[in-house]
Amino acid sequence: MRLLLEALLALGALSALPGQAQAPPAAIPQGPVTVDANRAEWQQGGAMIYTGNVVMRSADLEMRGERLELKQLPAGEFEARLSGAPARLLQAGTDAAPPVVAQAQELFYDSQGGVVQLAGAAQIERGGDRLNGDTIRYEVAQRRIQASGGEGGQVRIVITPPAQPKGPQK
User: Fold this and answer.
1) Segment 45-84, tens digit of pLDDT
2) Per residue in 28-53, pLDDT tens?
3) H or E element: which one contains 23?
4) Which terminus has fewer CB within 10 Å in the chain: N or C?
5) Are 155 and 144 spatial neighbours (Cβ–Cβ below 8 Å)?
6) pLDDT per residue as tens digits for the range 84-96
7) DSSP structural state of residue 159
8) Alpha-carbon Rg for the chain in angstroms
9) DSSP labels for 39-57?
């Protein structure tokens, strides 16, 4: 379980802003990680399956869906596949960065590469900005987003300018 907790903390890199130097993720999670579900099954070989109203939380990350499959890999990394209608991910914001919210029919996180794949009606939001596509690849540490509209579809990006202070204008 500790390996799972350490890998989840790697998602903490979502809170850095582009162009800023990024500190490496802390080696241990901030606070406990809990998984709540209607049912749980631990299988031989390090696989865990949670189904029904799945919620996985840490101090700054929350994932929700209907089915969560966790697979531990030999070097301590893991793969997590969350599905739902939709599956959701929330990364808490910081003083320097707004929260990141993602949703899709399926979220796949590979801790080896630090990549979250969103598939099926994928959407990711950071502050007021939003990106929609059929699939989205999110490189956590680099905060790099790649999106595809799927067969014949398009990607849509909505960039919201910061709010202007109200008051007398000069």
Assistant:
1) 778 999 999 998 876 678 899 999 988 777 766 788 999 9
2) 334 566 789 999 998 887 789 999 99
3) none
4) C
5) no
6) 989 998 877 778 7
7) -
8) 17
9) EEEEETTTEEEEEEEEEEE
Long-range contacts of 64-67 (CB under 8 A, 24+ apart): 64/88, 65/107
Q: Report how far residue 147's alpha carbon sits from residue 157's, in angstroms, rounded to the nearest whole number.
A: 10
> What's the fold here for domain 2-17+56-158?
lipopolysaccharide transport protein A fold (2.60.450)
Residue pair 135/148 in contact (Cβ under 8 Å)? The answer is yes
**Nearest to residue 25, comparing CAs of 55, 70, 60?**
60
Query: Helix, strand, or coil here: 130?
Result: strand
Residue 34 CA to residue 56 CA, distance in Å, equals 6
Tell me how far apart the alpha carbons of residues 126 and 138 are, in angstroms, rounded to a whole number. 12
Helix, strand or coil, per DSSP, at residue 82: strand
Residues in Cβ contact with 25 at an 8 Å cutoff, skipping those fewer than 6 apart? 9, 10, 12, 13, 141
